[in-house]
Amino acid sequence: MGTNITFKRPDGKDAKGYLANASRGNAPGVIVIQEWWGLSENIKGLTDRFALAGFDALAPDLYDGVVVPYHDTDAANKEMTSLNFMDATLQTVRGAAQYLKRNGAKVGLTGFCMGGAVTIIGAAHLTELSAAVAFYGIPPEQAAKPADIKVPFQGHFANRDDWCTPAAVDGFEKALKAAGKPADIFRYDADHAFVNEQRAAVHDRQAAELAWGRAAEFFTKHLG
Q1: Residue 207's domain is classified under what CATH number?
Q2: Cα(99)–Cα(109) distance, rounded to whole angstroms?
Q3: Could you list the residue range(s) of the whole structural domain that residue 97 is in?
Q4: How far apart are CA 170 and CA 53, in angstroms?
Q5: CA quadruple 60, 66, 69, 73: dihedral positive or negative?
Q6: Are 183 and 134 a contacting pair, CB within 8 Å?
Q7: What is the secondary structure of 107-137 as a DSSP string?
Q8: pTM score
Q9: Distance, CA of 122 to CA of 218 (rounded, Å)
Q10: Are 15 and 46 within 8 A, CB to CB?
Q11: Bridge partners of 29?
Q12: Parallel/antiparallel/unpaired status of strands 56-60 and 14-20
């Protein structure tokens, strides 16, 4: 459904991504950030789904073409740890937001796993955004404190998650409330990456569909 595009970062460098447009011409935008595997077919499928829901959706390629096989966690960890998260957010993700805003549309940001952490960084630093939805990812506080989030926020987390743990989620939610930040935090009796339908071992269709509905409704409310 979508197509591969090149867009400009604020620093003038080129970035690549996967764009899926809504059927209407004045649609709001949603940026979709990849898991630590890269810009996989799963992420492209979610980008297509946002387009079908009425959003112009763009998934930036933060790994510049590298897609790691699902079984190779060592390679995925190597790619993720070599990524400059602040550059990726402040330049590549911001460039994606500016691309989607060029016709005056409101833009939201969402992401999964590693992309969830990038989403929170973006929600704290990018003035181009109007809403953010993070899935099972929280960045270190030196990258973005919960109190720094500047837009309406929704988070989806798994109770059986040994990476973005329930304790980490509890601390994140407590910090949001202490700072008076408007946020909806949802927890699911599922595993990390439960939205990824290509990973049968962790995919939970019921939880994924519930989370999807909540995210789509949230973006419709805040982006128009």
Answers
A1: 3.40.50.1820
A2: 13
A3: 3-223
A4: 31
A5: negative
A6: no
A7: EEEEEETHHHHHHHHHHHH-TT-SEEEEES-
A8: 0.97
A9: 17
A10: no
A11: 56, 107
A12: antiparallel
Angle at 43 between CA 41 and CA 49, to 5 degrees: 105
Encode pLDDT of 93-149 as tens digits: 999 999 999 888 999 999 999 999 999 999 999 999 999 999 999 999 999 999 999
Structure-token pair, residue 147: 């109190």
| Alpha-carbon separation of residue 45 from 9, 13, 57, 68, 93 (angstroms) | 24, 27, 11, 17, 19
20-74: pLDDT as tens digits: 999 988 899 999 999 999 999 999 999 999 999 999 999 999 999 999 999 999 9
Count of residues making up the chain: 224
Between vectors from CA 19 to CA 106 and to CA 136, what angle results, nearest 5°? 70
Using CB atoms within 10 Å of the CB of residue 78, give its burial: 0 to 12 exposed, 13 to 18 middle, 19+ buried.
Answer: middle
Number of structural domains the chain divides into: 1
167-170 long-range contacts, CB within 8 A, separation 24+ = 168/138, 169/138
